[in-house]
Design brief:
The chain is an alpha/beta fold. The chain is built from 13 helices and four strands.
Length: 287
């Protein structure tokens, strides 16, 4: 685009589109590599694929060419037709280069309807029809992610938006699923007037409230032991939940002991936790 001046204003407009295009290209290439690996029982180097695609697209841009990426439809048809090595891919690139450079006038004569028909057959051949036949056997969350992703892609004509929505939904469903596996059991030692709480599972922003509500702060106890050897704390919300539990027990005059915390969780709690600070109660009340 020689007519567009390269200044800060144009860069702020072009850069987001460039990053979006790069993201879509990488996503499609990774999906293509995963599908081809599954069809050919091989294990490709995804990092090498990304690096090669990035270098090739940068070089193509300097030569006035268009960015490209792996194509799911062409790759699947290639594999199903018996092309399982690098030679078919190399041949396709060479013939495409020859057609664009030397016989482009002939290509212009091909009716658009014929190309549309080819693309329709490619879509029919690459679509996984079992995903519709077995939709009742899949989890509801997986079906919702698949259907919503397809709807967003078709409605916006943008694969990046569809993938983004699909990833966000998958993350929400995953967080909701992991939250259910967190459990807290307690055991009371009457002679010592001590209750031991055993925490099992993952404590993060989604399960922090469940973690806090599992403790009885009004019970008259001499000591509370919180065993977290079977738990893991992931984020600041989990650390805040620990602070809240420990400080509330101490406010009621109960001694609290945390045991079994793994190194990763301990590092997070030491960095962001406040229950061992002198002004812990005041800082908790200030939130």
């Amino acid at each position: 685009l020689p007519d567009i001046p390269l200044n800060l204003e144009t860069l702020t407009i072009i850069l987001p589109y460039s990053l979006g295009l790069a993201a879509v290209g990488l996503l499609e290439s990774m999906m293509t590599a995963t599908i081809v690996d599954d069809l050919t029982d091989t294990n490709s180097d995804k990092n090498r694929e990304c690096k090669g695609q990035g270098v090739a697209n940068i070089a193509s841009g300097f030569l006035g060419g268009m960015a490209g990426c792996a194509m799911i439809g062409q790759s699947i048809i290639n594999v199903k037709s018996g092309g399982g090595t690098r030679l078919p891919t190399f041949s396709a690139g060479v013939f495409l280069l020859i057609m664009v450079v030397f016989i482009s006038d002939w290509l212009k004569a091909i009716p658009m309807a014929a190309l549309v028909a080819v693309m329709i057959m490619v879509a029919i051949g690459t679509f996984n029809w079992d995903s519709l036949r077995n939709i009742r056997q899949y989890p509801l969350s997986s079906n919702i992610v698949m259907i919503v992703t397809v709807i967003v892609v078709v409605a916006t004509h943008n694969l990046a938006y569809g993938v983004l929505v699909g990833v966000l939904l998958s993350a929400l469903f995953f967080a909701n699923k992991i939250e259910r596996y967190m459990a807290i059991q307690s055991e009371f030692n009457e002679p010592e007037n001590t209750r031991t709480y055993t925490v099992t599972g993952q404590v993060f922003f989604s399960s922090a409230d469940k973690f806090t509500s599992a403790f009885d702060f009004k019970e008259a106890l001499s000591k509370v032991v919180i065993d977290v050897s079977q738990a893991h704390f992931w984020d600041v919300s989990a650390v805040a939940a620990v602070d809240k539990v420990v400080i509330k027990f101490r406010r009621e005059g109960t001694e609290v002991e945390l045991i079994g915390m793994n190194e990763a969780s301990k590092t997070l709690v030491d960095k962001f936790g406040i229950h061992d600070k002198p002004d812990a109660l005041d800082r908790l009340n200030s939130h």
